Amino acid sequence: MFKPLDPLLHSQLRLAVMSLLISVEEAEFTFLKEKTESTAGNLSVQLDKLEKAGYIEIEKSFRGKRPLTTCKITKKGIDAFEAYVDNLKNYIQ
Fold it and tell me: Which residue among 35, 59, 67, 86 sits deepest, i.e. has the most Cβ atoms within 10 Å of its Cβ?
């Protein structure tokens, strides 16, 4: 029996963000934007959805006079990502 895939993680951009964040302690917005090749606006919207779900934490600060947004995956996000990958494996076996 297949478990349903988490619709929040089934989005290509959100899955890419989670895949990046699971392998680092934290990542800056500009790093995520470059790696996912997304627009700032779209990335911002998707990060907000992940944060509202409790999958990531977003910290806003400044580096000098420039705004700095840093993201990191939460325990809930790690668990959700691992469950998603496990469920996906069931579909392809």
Answer: 35
Residue 13 has pLDDT above 80, yes or no: yes
Beta bridge mates, 59? 70
Residue 84 confidence (pLDDT) = 95
- Distance, in Å, from the CA atom of 74 to the CA atom of 54, rounded to the nearest integer, reads 7
DSSP string, 12-76: HHHHHHHHHHTTSS-EEHHHHHHHHT--HHHHHHHHHHHHHTTSEEEEEEEETTEEEEEEEE-HH
Distance CA 41, CA 66 (A): 18
State the average pLDDT for the chain: 95
In b/e form, how buried is each residue of 9-41, taking b as 16+ CB within 10 angstroms?
beeebbbbbbebbeeeeebebeebbeebebeee
Q: Which amino acid is at 43?
A: L
